[in-house]
Amino acid sequence: MELYELPKGWVWTKLGELGEIVTGTTPCKSKKEYYGEAYPFFKPTDLNTGYYVRESKDALSDEGIKHARLLPEKSILVTCIGATIGKTGFVRVEGASNQQINALIPNKNILPEFIYFMCISPKFQKSIIDKASATTLPILNKSKFEILPFPLPPLPEQNCIVAKIEELFTKRDAGVEALKKIKTQLKRYRQSVLKHAFNGKFTNENIKDGELPNNWKWKEIKEITSVLGDGLHGTPKYSDIGNYFFINGNNLSNGKIEIKENTKRVTIEEYEKYKKPLNKRTIFVSINGTLGNTAFYNNEKVILGKSACYFNVLDTIDKRYVRYCITSNRFINYANKTATGSTIKNVGLKAMREFEIPIPTTLEEQQLIVDTIETHFSSADKVQEIVDKALTQAERLRQSILKTAFEGRLVPQDPTDEPASVLLERIKKEKEKLEKVRKTKGKIKRRNKNTGLM
Q1: Theoretical Cys-Cys bridge with 40: which of 28, 56, 137, 302, CB 3.0 to 4.6 Å?
Q2: What are the φ and ψ backbone dihedral angles of 10, each rounded to 5 degrees?
Q3: Helix (H, G, I), strand (E, B) or coil at 302
Q4: Which H/E stretch holds residue 367?
């Protein structure tokens, strides 16, 4: 972290000076008696809840905690390895952590909440990344973690800063929650639009639920397509210089094919070997893992993997009408009901061919329904764009609050506060006393052991 000028009364120190830092450990998993419900056993995935970490997916027994380090409540946990390096949690209960986490047990003279908020601030998070080993798997070991720079204000100011951050975060979080509810409502609104569209209510009056207009018919996908198949059940020969892409269900998104950074390439020879009869009437649907992602074919240079199927819609059917029907909850429910597999769901081609779609007999009515859907969706998209921008701004506000706080600009200062340098000196003296006590106890233990008194 770049050391910037601190307000009067503040002092730069090192994280390790503020308490004891412990790297977690995992008790032997083959010892079933080590695991139970007495103490939560925290891993990086348990830190998603951030400020109020109370629970974990795993827990240790009274016997198991003997083979780990018991962390008191209000310890600060920071992930020190892997893609989630820097993920931080503030624990509200006693527990332990695994070896992917460095835990700071704060000195009694430091406000633990202040340390937590500093640890999640943008500058501190950047310092974690900067100091981590530059390898495929970034690691910040205990010795490097201990020397991370830390701006320390007087204790009364720590309390004021924490109170102000909590106040501002509470207001911000309420706003974020309201925005998330709007996104949920928009999702429901889109599904309501689709339900009305495929009930015939957009183009026919006085239609009762469960009934179709007189000029509509239920038709299976196999009746309205010229071909339906899936992709390659295997792996093609990849080539870094190939001009064709090997796509799967995760490349299908909202009607378009997305070529991602990790999408594999193949040569024209592999393309010729595995190409499918795709044309301007082709629709792709993901049928393995994530179900119901869709895309149109638009002359992209692709071959298809087995997690997606394709079908070519007849000229008498509006392909957009079919795709919208497949994005409805009725198809998703059908896909989940007919899918095989428990961990990874798979919809068979037979189930795809037999999915029924309510079809108006005229192409004009299909197109009118599609136009109506897209008018409603366009309005919803504009609202969602506003909501997404507001959520982005809320995250920036969060970072701005933290940045302002740890530059000493969030709350007014009191010139009568005891300087942080005095507080830091008191902490150092207490640590020296504790270290002397530890050494004395260690000598006594070793002496007793040598004399057989233990």
Answers
A1: 56
A2: -90, 165
A3: strand
A4: helix 363-405
Q: Apex CA 306: angle with CA 300 and CA 310, to 5°?
A: 50
Query: pLDDT (tens digit, 9 = 90+) per residue, 47-102?
Result: 876 677 778 889 999 999 999 999 999 999 999 999 899 999 999 999 999 999 99
Q: Report which DSSP code applies to 71.
A: B
- pLDDT at res. 395: 93
Among 402, 433, 427, 435, CA closest to 155: 427
Quick check: helix, strand or coil at residue 303?
A: strand
Q: Output the pTM of the full model.
A: 0.80
CA angle 17, 48, 179 (to 5 degrees): 120
CA distance 310 to 312: 7
Residue 145 and residue 133 in contact, taking contact as beta carbons nearer than 8 Å: no
Say which residue the tokens 């450990």 belong to. Answer: 25
Give me the pLDDT at residue 163, please: 97
The two structure tokens encoding residue 445: 């233990």
**Within 10 Å of residue 336's Cβ, how many Cβ atoms?**
12
User: H or E element: which one contains 311?
Assistant: strand 308-313
What pLDDT is recorded for position 116?
96
- At residue 449, the pLDDT reads 61
| Helix, strand or coil, per DSSP, at residue 149 | strand
Name all domains of the chain by residue range, CATH numbers in brackets. Answer: 11-153 (3.90.220.20), 216-360 (3.90.220.20)
The two three-digit tokens of residue 45, written as one number: 């995935």
Sequence-distant (≥ 6) Cβ neighbours of residue 424 within 8 angstroms: 11, 13, 17, 152
Residues 176 and 327: their CA atoms lie apart, in Å, by: 27
Distance CA 352, CA 220 (A): 9
Residue 158's nearest CA partner among 438, 424, 383 is: 424
Give the DSSP H or E segment for 104. strand 101-106
Nearest Cα neighbor of 352 from 311, 293, 323 is 311
SS3 state at 264: strand
Specify the residue for token string 């430091």.
110
pLDDT at 266 over 80: yes
- To the nearest 10°, the Cα dihedral for 216, 220, 224, 227? 180
